[in-house]
Write a structure and sequence with these properties.
With 73 residues, this protein is of the alpha+beta class. The protein contains two helices and four strands. The chain has a single domain, classed as Conserved Hypothetical Protein Mth637, Chain: A, CATH 3.30.1200.10. Helix content is 29%, strand content 18%. It has a two-stranded antiparallel ribbon. It has a two-stranded antiparallel sheet with strand order 3-4. A hairpin with a 5-residue loop joins strand 1 and strand 2.
Length: 73
């Protein structure tokens, strides 16, 4: 997982996009990376698409930026 210069975060998982398996894999990856329980990671948009929006409860944007590697904004 890495942060891009435009502020988006790219993640790669090997789970198939079937029955929500890929979405769940991304939730687990985000939870592990930022150190929160996976139930704090909410899929806001993109349930069936490649582009997704997640909300991480309990962390500020500054904290998330510090925890996810990539280009600084």
């Amino acid at each position: 997982m890495e942060r891009q210069s435009d502020g988006t975060i790219r993640a790669w998982v090997t789970a198939p996009p079937v029955e929500g398996e890929a979405n769940e894999a991304v939730r687990r990856l985000i939870a592990r990376t930022v150190g929160v329980a996976k139930n704090k990671i909410l899929l806001v948009r993109g349930d069936h698409g490649r582009m997704k929006t997640f909300r991480i409860e309990g962390l500020t944007r500054v904290e998330i930026d510090q925890l996810i590697p990539g280009e600084q904004l």
